């Protein structure tokens, strides 16, 4: 009887030890892709609610703000709008991404922060960033050629003008110091946090789910563009999302993505800063800044060649390791 009890006890101890090994913090078991997707979406939604509540509290506590104009973004001071942007970037993108990685990741470096890349990859990434600009203008033209009703056209154009007006209200191009702050808030911070969520988190989940690169990259790019709520900027941002997707897929270095994304964002701020030297900036300037058609075609060809070269160099670097 004693021997039987001892054998039974040893059996359950062995089972418990196996269960701990497989399911505890000592050895993380990777979740199914659909569950990771739901967790990520849930965290982003919670982050959106927290950002909205905190933003509303800050806005309503500011005495000079007219509540009837909050939705339109009017009567908001530039410092207040900057703080609202920072809150949005932190709660909507940064926190959900890091918490998501903490929950689902079974490897130490989920976002590939520690991955090093050769100088060749960085230079090609720079070329990709610059080539994507005129290429995006081509897709912007296609976006405008898509037939829609005049009613929708007026709604979308009004929304675009409102977005441009708010962006220009935040961007300070009157001084070099203001330009640097604008670069940090408009270009650098969004590039960091958006890459963490879209390429660093969502694309990895979709890649695991679909087991194919192109669908995962394209779906991520479409969602990335849709989140910006810009009809006339939809296709250009899809292109940018696809480019960033392939940079992350081949480069396996989130810093490369942040770099390309930053260059793209900073180009707009820099254009407005340079343009303001000769005349006051106008919201329509952001729409009129389009490369000539021949430059758009050259940009597309250079972009394709640069992405191909990037993939080859990235594979060569991986093989050397």
TrEMBL record:
Coiled-coil features, chain-numbered ranges: none
Record GO biological process: CAAX-box protein maturation; proteolysis
UniProtKB keywords: Hydrolase, Membrane, Metalloprotease, Protease, Transmembrane, Transmembrane helix
Pfam families for the chain: Rce1-like
TM spans (from-to): 37-60, 80-101, 175-193, 213-234, 254-273, 293-311
CAAX prenyl protease 2/Lysostaphin resistance protein A-like domain boundaries: 179-266
GO MF terms, alphabetically ordered: endopeptidase activity; metallopeptidase activity
Protein's UniProt keywords contain DNA damage: no
Protein name per Swiss-Prot or TrEMBL: CPBP family intramembrane metalloprotease
Organism of provenance: Arachidicoccus soli
């Amino acid at each position: 009887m004693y021997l039987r009890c001892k054998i039974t006890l040893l059996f359950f101890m062995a089972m418990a030890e196996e269960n701990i090994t497989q399911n505890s913090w000592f050895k993380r078991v990777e979740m199914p892709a659909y569950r990771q997707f739901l967790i990520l979406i849930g965290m982003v939604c919670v982050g959106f609610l927290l950002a909205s509540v905190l933003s509303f509290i800050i806005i309503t506590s500011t005495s000079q703000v007219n509540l009837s104009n909050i939705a339109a973004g009017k009567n908001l001071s530039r410092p207040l709008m900057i703080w609202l942007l920072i809150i949005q970037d932190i709660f909507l993108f940064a926190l959900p991404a890091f918490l998501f990685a903490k929950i689902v990741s079974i490897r130490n470096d989920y976002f590939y922060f520690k991955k090093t890349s050769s100088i060749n990859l960085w230079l090609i990434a720079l070329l990709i960033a610059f080539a994507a600009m005129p290429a995006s203008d081509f897709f912007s033209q296609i976006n405008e050629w898509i037939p829609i009703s005049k009613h929708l056209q007026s709604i979308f154009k009004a929304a675009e003008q409102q977005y441009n007006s708010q962006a220009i209200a935040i961007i300070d191009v009157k001084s070099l110091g203001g330009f640097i702050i604008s670069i940090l808030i408009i270009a650098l911070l969004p590039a960091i946090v958006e890459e963490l969520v879209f390429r660093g988190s969502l694309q990895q989940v979709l890649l695991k789910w679909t087991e194919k690169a192109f669908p995962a990259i394209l779906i991520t790019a479409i969602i990335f563009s849709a989140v910006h709520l810009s009809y006339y900027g939809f296709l250009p941002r899809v292109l940018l999302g696809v480019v960033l997707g392939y940079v992350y897929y081949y480069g396996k270095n989130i810093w490369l993505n942040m770099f390309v994304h930053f260059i793209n964002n900073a180009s707009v701020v820099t254009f407005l800063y340079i343009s303001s030297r000769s005349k006051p900036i106008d919201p329509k300037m952001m729409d009129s800044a389009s490369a000539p058609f021949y430059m758009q075609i050259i940009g597309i060809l250079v972009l394709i060649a640069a992405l191909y070269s990037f993939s080859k160099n990235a594979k060569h670097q991986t093989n050397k390791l």
